[in-house]
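We recall that each integer encodes one residue's backbone shape. We quote one record:
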Amino acid sequence: MTLPRSVLFAALLLLALVPSVASTFYLQLGAKIMIMAIFALSLDLLVGHTGLVSFGHAAYFGVAAYALALIAPKYEAVNFWLTLPAALIATAMVALIIGFLVVRTSGIYFIMVTLAFAQMLYAIFHDTKLGGGSDGIYITMRPELTISGFKPLDLENPVEFFYLVLILLGAVYIFLNYLLHSQFGRALAGIRVNPQRMRAIGFAVDAYKLGAFVLAGAIAGLAGYLAACQFGFVSPEILAWHQSGTVLMMVILGGMGRLHGAVIGAFAYVMLQELLSAEALFGVYAKHWQLAMGSLIVIIVLALPHGIGGAIDVFLHRRRVNSEASDD
């Protein structure tokens, strides 16, 4: 399900106005939320629309981040237009290799195999000198968007970095919305409901699942690249299983199978995390924010079985029905 265009336009306009009123801290927080929203959108393509529950999705987030860190010289800015495609191609290739091996599995086996591959990648970066070991790698200068001497955006500027992330979030949302309404997207919906029937009527189910897996990995790579740009640091923790669990909770919190649900889930999770870990509000209890977060998520999921996005859909549907009834 998708939100009406008027609601999406209003949300986009509100986000575009944030830099005019927000301080640098809130701009960075907003960029972080939008990066996680791109990450959540990529996982929702697998979980909510294809029926593939991956517990190793952070691997692609981390591979793209490490790709940028390994390409970038220590004291020189790299070109955004060259390094972003390179990072996405590297991520897509990793997703293609892993996906080729895992799409033939399903259910708990798919979950465990994706987790196993992600942990192998984690071990490669954690236990070898390739990724700097457990210390990770610093990225001292953000990439430049220079084209023939013209620089449309300066990523060192928090406002311009915010707008870049906003543009990319909007592009990913529109692309996935178009994709899910195409023949490919309808085939994925059919595979999610009944893969045996789709195979019986002639669809190459494994090829469709592999295509969705690679595409989701590449979009997660985009989020990882942006995260590396923002924080200027990558470590093996960004590939670990708890990172995959975090983004899965965002998707569940927002409502699986809804593009806007993934965005809302990322926003809700990060804001709850910031609120519950604030020592100014909760003092010494703030260090136990995971306990409060877990309790809140359980309550929200029990009260809203289709997530926050599902509750918004129900509200908008009832409002439209009441409006049509009053017009009659």
In short: The longest strand covers residues 137-138. The mean pLDDT is 90.
